[in-house]
């Protein structure tokens, strides 16, 4: 899987989170911010690390539903495989 495919996959999953009304507003906002970062024209590893930082913070939020936490963990594992 190349970086563009990884970013597309992550964007799709983040859009699921944004459209899920059971997910708290702050988590959906972080997902929107992450999509904006993934769409920027920057070095792939820089984009990935920025999004990983945001998602890592929200994955520890005690109010996040378990299904959303699992989706975030899946995104994090995908982003960790991004290469230069």
Automatic annotation (TrEMBL):
Matches recorded under Pfam families: UPF0147
Annotated transmembrane regions: none
SUPFAM superfamilies: Ta0600-like (SSF158436)
Recorded family membership: Belongs to the UPF0147 family.
Record protein name field: UPF0147 protein ASJ82_01545
UniProt lineage: Archaea, Methanobacteriati, Methanobacteriota, Methanomada group, Methanobacteria
């Amino acid at each position: 899987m190349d970086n563009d495919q990884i970013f597309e996959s992550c964007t799709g999953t983040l859009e699921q989170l944004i459209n899920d009304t059971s997910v708290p507003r702050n988590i959906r906002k972080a997902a929107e911010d992450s999509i904006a970062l993934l769409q920027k024209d920057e070095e792939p590893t820089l984009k990935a690390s920025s999004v990983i930082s945001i998602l890592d913070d929200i994955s520890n939020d005690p109010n996040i539903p378990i299904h959303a936490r699992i989706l975030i963990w899946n995104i994090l594992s995908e982003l960790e495989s991004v290469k230069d």
